[in-house]
Amino acid sequence: MQFSYKARDKSGSMQRGKVEANDAKSAAQALMQRGLIPVDVAPSKGKASESKGSKANASVWQQLKAIAEPNVELDQLIIFCRQMYSLTNAGIPILRAIEGLADTTQNKRLERALRDVHSQLERGRTLSSGMSQHPKVFSRLIVSIVHVGENTGQLEESFEQLALYLEKEQDTRKRIKAATRYPTFVMIALVVALFVLNIFVIPTFANMFSRFNVELPWATRALLGTSEFFVAYWPLMLLAMVGAFFAIRAYVNSASGRLLWDRWKLRMPIIGSILERSILSRFARSFSVMLSAGVPLTQALSLVAEAVDNAYMESKILDIRRTIERGENLSRAARQSKLFTPLVLQMIVVGEETGRSDTLLKEVADYYERETDYDLKTLTARIEPVMIGFVAILVLILALGIFTPMWDMMNAYQGR
């Protein structure tokens, strides 16, 4: 961008001219490097429309780049918090630390966010306010803990708390994914097997049975009817499945749909109790981190409601916050919500009486994490009998439908 300037040289005489720079501050610095003292620096009028067009094009290009950039994964945030803890604990200035991390990170979205945070720090803004401008990278929980660390002079401890919390969160997510991987693959294999059998295998037996003109058993008639439906309408079935997937996804993304889905997840057989323990663990740990960082109680509840990542639990936690704002204490508000188990309620009561709520909630989180870990380890053993029973029923129907008429035809052929 081109700037027109007025500046005085060492002898005091006025100089006029133009200089290329990214902004007015950079233009003034360029003039001082030449030995000139800037008096007035303004964008060149001849390039005003051009600069506006270039800014608009640059803005569109930046938006397209932002869409194409990969999301910031949890492990990258953990590394960022660990590095910030080490740098701040070593006494490295924040500006230098942010600039160094922006130069070394491999994630483009995180790099762009850190460079913007660095530029905002140079303009005098705080670290937390700069991070709050990038909600897709830094959640409100992270921003709030960093804000408390800035105000209390314990920024390095805030980053250490965040690193520990995010590591626990990552471990829980990995264990849940590992436990649900097996039943997911089994269900996908069963769906594919149903399509293959009904479209390619059963029609072969149907042609064979049609030559004998004999009365077929009910299992065989059911299989042949199902196969005819699959052969005739499988393209529509695929379209219906894809349409249903996107329709359900759109409904779940809505406020009412997400509330209903998250409430139903907690009541699912076998895995509902595991999800509930996992959410209670996340609630206790994030609430403990908030309280130990010095976040006010009502603000901590608002942040924890977002951290649990469950709309039903979020609404209940926000109800607790509103009850506290009306003058009730935390233990009574938690008991009225009917959301927590007796263990959590007991720990909240003891924490209020002793002033150690953060420590006791951390113990609750550890307890529920151990319970969740054990349930996840035994989840496969509990799901396997259900899967085996379902597969056995399918095999039994196929055996009765295909082999029973074959035995009848063999007996008729032998004259029995």
UniProtKB/TrEMBL annotation:
One of its GO terms (cellular component) is plasma membrane. The keyword Cell inner membrane applies. It is a multi-pass membrane protein. The keyword Transmembrane helix applies. GO terms for biological process: protein secretion by the type II secretion system. InterPro entries: GspF/PilC, T2SS_GspF_dom, T2SS_GspF_sf. It holds the Pfam family T2SSF. It is found in: Cell inner membrane. The chain crosses the membrane at residues 182-209, 229-252, 386-407. Keywords: Cell inner membrane, Cell membrane, Membrane, Transmembrane, Transmembrane helix. Residues 1-25 are annotated as: Disordered. Residues 80-203, 283-405 form the Type II secretion system protein GspF domain. Residues 1-23 have a biased composition (Basic and acidic residues). Belongs to the GSP F family. This is MSHA biogenesis protein MshG. It comes from Idiomarina fontislapidosi.
